[in-house]
Structures are given as C-alpha cells and as structure tokens.
Amino acid sequence: MRATTGAEDTTMTAAFMSLTNPGNTDIKLTSAASPVAGLVQLHEMAAKDGKMVMQEKPGGITVPATSHTHLSPGGDHVMLMGLKQALKPGDEVPLTLTFSDNTTHDLTVPVKSFTEEQEHYHPTTK
Ligand SMILES: [Cu+2]
Fold it and tell me: What pLDDT, on the 0 to 100 scale, is given for residue 7?
C-alpha cells in the first residue's frame, strides 16, 4: 500500500498485490474493505480523451483459473478513499478481500513509499 507521506492528497491511496488462483475456475475479486478508509473500490486504468484515468472496474478484478493477476501502478488496483489516518512507510494496514465464491481473505498490508506514476493517483491535483 502506498504511503501518504509527502502526497499532495492524503485522503486517498492505492494497494497493489499479486493474486493467485489455484482453482480450476476463474474467480473475481469483488470488493475490499479496510478500517483505515471510508470507502474502498476496485479500480482499473482506462484511456479517456487521450490520457489515462482511473475508474471503478465493472464486476471486479478477474483472477484466471490456475493463474494469477498483478495489481500494480498503472493497472488494476485497490483504491482506498476517505482515509482516516496518515499512512507512513512501515505501517501495517488490515485489508479484507471478498471474492466471487464468497470467500474472504484478511490481509495485513505493509505500507511503502512509491514515487512512480504518482500523478495517476492524484488526478484532482493536476
Ligand atoms: Cu484508483
């Protein structure tokens, strides 16, 4: 998860991870929740008027059968909005993922500083 330290907009951040699906059917990440955020959405990057913007991903993020999906800067990500606290490098944040087979996974996500593509995650300040 991206630290908010030094960010222009400290009310939002994003989480990135790899999701592995050992099963024989495709599965979707359908929602996420965290106690540090008022609202958590699943986002994708899309071209709009010639530039990349992020938007809510319809139906969630698919993890193909016996394969994996990377959530990374510039691609799909878990968006945390309405942050209730600053997130510093070294912090750990609880994040609960819910999948299309009704399973949930409770994660403890390390907070790190990112510098690349910062502007994509702060569209209102550009
Ligand atoms: Cu986003």
Answer: 86
